[in-house]
Design brief:
Pfam families: Peptidase_C69. GO terms for molecular function: dipeptidase activity. Its EC number is 3.4.-.-. It contains twelve helices and 17 strands. 48% of the residues are buried. With 477 residues, it is of the alpha+beta class. Helix 10 packs antiparallel against helix 11 (396-421), helix 10 packs parallel to helix 12 and helix 11 runs antiparallel to helix 12 (430-464). The protein starts with 8 loop residues before the first strand and ends in a 13-residue tail after the last helix.
């Protein structure tokens, strides 16, 4: 199976930990290279049509039920070579899924239960095989767990399921074994490519789920290194120099931004997955984490540390971040408009999070049609925002303030747009609400394209003034 190194970062926030009572499940989708074009689409519901979904990266073929819900996806354009990777979205039952956060088990456990790389379920098809058929976040864990039991797993994956009440984080780590933990309502969680879940309480079936026989598997193969307790990370995870420079610093910095009063070490293998704060977490706080690159520390690649310090740790936001998304479910909005997929194409440090209602049945053409190469007409949202990222970073010291002002204005406009648009679906039937949200979304996307292209024109003109190919004639000559 083809498996490029994937390196995502996840932030999860329970409903009592947020400022508005929403659940938020967020992740950066980072790929092997800086250019991996993708699009945002809506797959229609279907009925009385049993079918299969096939992986492009191995020989997995999953049988699907005859009835499936409408759902969003963010697939790759070159799916034949790169796989489909639908990544994230909501289905029509207001259940969100984000897949996957790549995780890596240690060789001790994999020797006892190897990954089924030949035909096991993988990230290529995991959303298409699961999201159209689930009615709640917990149901998502159950359903995917049955698929892993039937087909095995081809890789280590962390999978997020969310609805208006719950967020579940599921880690599939060997060919057949997994653990899932419910994020407490009053807490948040941060992780980046390491196995995250720690102590497991097998008596607490409200907050933990697991694969059949996992306790017996660990005991019979003598896999638990701890004298006391059952720490999933210690048993199944890795703890090496790669983790300390690639993975644990991102978890450290996420906690630093959301919990600034807590002092932690970026090299600590036992950084907590779940924490609580003394303040409420807002949407822009989650955006700040996913768009971060160690600002305010010596480790910032765009900062003023030494060359060694600036390249010591892998940042959260990268040029390899193809999309950054936040799955938000707001209880203060009508049910038909309560799910919002906030999508940032491009490098999230420089580009805005644009909202798409989970129950809109149509996506603007600039998002659903992406060419393989940059079109200078900038009709594609993916290429427009990636071009903006490149322009801002090319003269970061000179352009960052203008980009920051653009992002602040965009947030104000987009937050207002959601708050004004969503209440208008009250009293509409499902079809009317979907059509209305789609129509209004097209207008919003057009406004964001107008603003973005205006900024790009402004920055390009400014950049022409910064060329080093200049000469000032001495007035005395």
């Amino acid at each position: 199976m083809k498996k490029n190194l994937s390196a995502c970062t996840t932030v999860l926030v329970g409903k009592d930990a947020t400022i508005d009572g929403s659940t938020m499940a967020a992740r950066n989708d980072d790929t092997f290279g800086p250019l991996n074009p993708m699009k945002l689409v809506v797959y229609p519901a279907y009925h009385n049509h049993p079918n299969q979904v096939k992986a492009y990266l191995n020989k997995c073929v999953v049988d699907r039920p005859a009835d499936g819900y409408r759902y969003q996806g963010t697939p790759n354009i070159d799916y034949v070579h790169e796989g489909v990777f639908d990544e994230s979205g909501f289905n029509e039952k207001n259940v969100g899924m984000s897949a996957t956060e790549s995780v890596y088990a240690n060789e001790r456990v994999l020797a006892c239960d190897p990954l089924n790389t030949e035909s096991g379920i993988n990230e290529d098809l995991i959303v298409a095989a699961t999201l159209p058929f689930i009615d709640s976040a917990k149901d998502g864990v159950r359903y995917l767990g049955e698929l892993v039991k039937k087909y095995g797993s081809a890789e280590g994956n962390g999978v997020i399921f969310s609805d208006k009440n719950d967020i579940w984080y599921m880690e599939i780590v060997t060919g057949h074994h997994w653990i899932a933990e419910r994020i407490p309502d009053d807490a948040y969680a941060v992780t980046g490519n390491r196995i995250a879940i720690q102590q497991v309480d097998f008596d607490d079936t409200d907050n933990f789920m697991w694969s059949d026989g996992i306790q017996e598997f660990v005991e019979s193969n003598h896999l638990n290194p701890d004298k006391h307790g059952w720490d999933f990370r210690h048993i199944f995870g890795t703890a090496d120099v790669f983790d300390q420079h690639y993975n644990t610093p991102r978890q450290w910095y996420g906690h630093k931004l959301l919990n600034p009063s807590v002092d932690q070490d970026p090299l600590d293998f036992d950084l907590p997955f779940i924490m609580r704060t003394d303040h409420k977490i807002a949407l822009e706080d989650v955006e700040k984490v996913l768009s971060s690159h160690y600002q305010g520390t010596l480790y910032d690649p765009l900062g003023h540390g030494t060359d060694e310090e600036r390249h010591l740790f892998r940042p959260i936001s990268l040029n390899r971040t193809q999309n950054s998304h936040i799955l938000q479910v707001r209880p203060d909005l009508p049910e038909a408009a309560s799910t919002i997929l906030w999508m940032s194409f491009g490098v999230p440090t420089f580009t805005p999070y644009v909202p798409f209602f989970g129950n809109a049945d149509d996506i603007d053409v600039s998002y659903r049609e992406t060419p393989m190469k940059l079109d200078m007409n900038l009709k594609s949202a993916y290429w427009m925002y990636r071009a903006l990222s490149m322009i801002v970073e090319s003269h970061h010291a000179e352009f960052s303030k203008e980009d920051l002002n653009y992002l602040k204005d965009a947030r104000e406009y987009l937050y207002r747009w959601v708050n004004q648009t969503a209440p208008q679906v009250e009293g509409m039937d499902d079809k009317q609400a979907s059509e209305f949200l789609s129509t209004e979304s097209h207008k919003m996307v057009a406004e964001m394209a107008k603003r973005t292209k205006a900024l790009m024109a402004q920055l390009i003109m400014h950049g022409l003034e910064l060329s080093k190919l200049t000469f000032i004639m001495d007035k005395n000559l």
